[in-house]
Amino acid sequence: MAPEDSQLHIFFFPLMVHGRIIPCIDIARQFAALGTKSTIITTPLNALRFGDSIDGDKQASLDIEFQVIPFLAVETGLPEGCESTSSLASPAMLMSFFKALGMLQQPFEQLLQEHHPDCIVSDAFFPWTTNVAEKYGIQMLCLICMERAT
């Protein structure tokens, strides 16, 4: 592995949906296996939900971790602990969920300032990450997941 100061560091920022988080963790794991420091940005409950998987990767000496940012569910009218689309009780809550997604920008920028990653791999549901990456001079890739018809 390269010295710490020359190690490539990638932030992965998936939408809080199992169908987006799981593939993003798999991609981050592949980069970590190649010697890249991989940091997955998520919310507290999602970090708990997927923590065992990442703990196993760390035990296998992969440089992979979660960085947790707060999800302002209550502030946007959602119940406490509603941090994933699977926890929405009704479709009417979707607008509040998307409002809370927009409120992730400030804590995300704070993480960028603290960690200075080389690249951001972000979900298309965070369109503001493009402007944030440009603001901090960080390379950016946008994930657009498409399902294949069976």
User: Can you count the beta strands?
Assistant: 5
Overall outline: globular
CATH fold description: Rossmann fold
Largest sheet: 5 strands, parallel
Rg calc: 15 Å
Number of domains: 1
CATH class: Alpha Beta
Approximate helicity band:
40-55%
For the largest sheet, list the strands in their spatial order.
3-2-1-4-5
Mean pLDDT: 90
Give the class from helix and strand content and strand pairing. Answer: alpha/beta
Please report the number of helical segments: 5
**Name of the CATH superfamily:** Glycogen Phosphorylase B
| CATH A-level architecture | 3-Layer(aba) Sandwich
Give the helix/strand layout.
Layout: E1 9-13, H1 18-33, E2 37-42, H2 44-59, E3 64-68, H3 94-102, H4 105-115, E4 119-123, H5 128-136, E5 139-143
Parallel strand pairs: 1-2, 1-4, 2-3, 4-5
Helix pairs in contact: 4-5
List keywords for this structure.
150 residues, alpha/beta, 5-stranded parallel sheet, 41% helix, disordered C terminus
